[in-house]
Automatic annotation (TrEMBL):
This is Nit6803 family nitriliase. Belongs to the carbon-nitrogen hydrolase superfamily. Nitrilase family. Pfam families: CN_hydrolase (PF00795). The lineage of its organism: Bacteria, Pseudomonadati, Pseudomonadota, Alphaproteobacteria, Hyphomicrobiales. InterPro entries: C-N_Hydrolase, C-N_Hydrolase_sf, Nitrilase, Nitrilase/CN_hydratase_CS, Nitrilases_CHs. It comes from Georhizobium profundi.
Length: 334
């Protein structure tokens, strides 16, 4: 039986810009530190391993080739030695871990979120559905199969990355699956102070609208790291601030002081009974919804580049059809 209280850790931390080995070591150290503080859940920043592609925000596309290729070399595959190390740490510390990585899948990179259960099982690998602005030069797109809430030792956990939270239907897809804890992350050290302000508004709104807890982590860059990414002081301004590592209740309140500068860890206890307290008043996918007027069609099939058609007893088996190739049918329980 799950506990009524879950202790969560939202971790604001700097990557090792030299490569994935150093960043993974920082992840493992942070997991141990959070566990020593009694955490049942640890959430890390967006594409933290090996690092968020900050270079793509300040370099024109024609100059990005060398750094983009270096990111390919340092990105992780799933599974790999790096993901197994995180899984083992989660199991050893009996902790759910949500980690953002740059995932390499043959010739493409993806902004990927990994949810490891407390027994070390990888419960979810999902890819950001629409990279934002400069990110579209770096990552491919995810699909509806990743918009999924998973059962874990601490409850039902869902995840979105950065401006996916500005897609209300993506958030609604998670709400319909009874999300209890929403793990989110942003790059941090980007855009300027307004980014941190926007993150706070967005996280508080999702908590209120979904009636769930939000555990959000943003990254951090040191001054030396900023200088290494670009020498121009004017462009360096775009690599500062924009941090809002926080934990929000279903009532839209901060459960601890957020971290907006430097490295740090927000620790808070989540009273899971607050979910029912909030939803008694407003349940966006229950008594406050009007599905006969407005409803979501969520295609949860994995998008694949090839469709295999087999002849089964003289009939075409089209189960692996790509998106748009098969007729959509109303679910039986609609």
């Amino acid at each position: 039986m799950r506990n009524d209280t879950v202790r969560a850790a939202a971790i604001q931390i700097a990557p090792d810009l030299s490569g994935r080995a150093g960043t993974v070591e920082r992840v493992l150290n942070a997991i141990a530190e959070a566990a020593d503080k009694g955490a049942d859940l640890a959430v890390f920043p967006e594409t933290f391993v090996p690092y968020y592609p900050y270079f793509s925000f300040v370099l024109p596309p024609v100059q990005q080739g060398p750094e983009h290729l270096r990111l390919y070399e340092e990105a992780v595959t799933v599974p790999s030695g790096e993901t197994r190390a995180v899984a083992e740490a989660a199991k050893r510390r009996n902790m759910v871990v949500v980690l953002g990585v740059n995932e390499r899948d043959h010739g493409s990179l993806y902004n990927t979120q990994l949810i490891f259960d407390a027994d070390g099982t990888l419960k979810l690998k999902r890819r950001k559905i629409t990279p934002t602005f400069h990110e579209r030069m770096i990552w491919g797109q995810g699909d509806g199969a990743g918009l999924k809430v998973v059962d874990t030792a601490i409850g039902r956990v869902g995840a979105l990355a950065c401006w996916e939270h500005y897609n209300p239907l993506a958030r609604y897809a998670l709400m319909t699956q009874s999300e209890e804890i929403h793990a989110s992350h942003f790059p941090g050290s980007l855009v300027g102070p307004i980014f941190g302000e926007q993150i706070e508004v967005t996280m508080r709104h999702h908590a209120l609208e979904s009636g769930c807890f939000v555990v959000n982590a943003t990254g951090w860059l040191t001054e030396d790291q900023i200088a290494a990414i670009h020498p121009d002081p004017k462009l360096q301004k775009g690599l500062r601030d924009g941090c809002m590592t926080c934990i929000i209740s279903p009532e839209g309140r901060h459960l601890a002081d957020p971290v907006t500068e430097g490295e740090g860890m927000v620790i808070a206890d989540l009273d899971m009974r607050l979910i029912a307290k909030r939803k008694r008043m407003m349940d966006s996918v229950g008594h406050y919804s009007r599905p006969e007027l407005l409803h979501l069609v969520h295609d949860m099939r994995e998008a694949r580049p090839v469709r295999q058609v087999h002849d089964v007893d003289g009939e075409e088996d089209d189960q692996d059809a790509p998106l748009g190739a098969r007729r959509l049918e109303e679910p039986s329980n609609a």
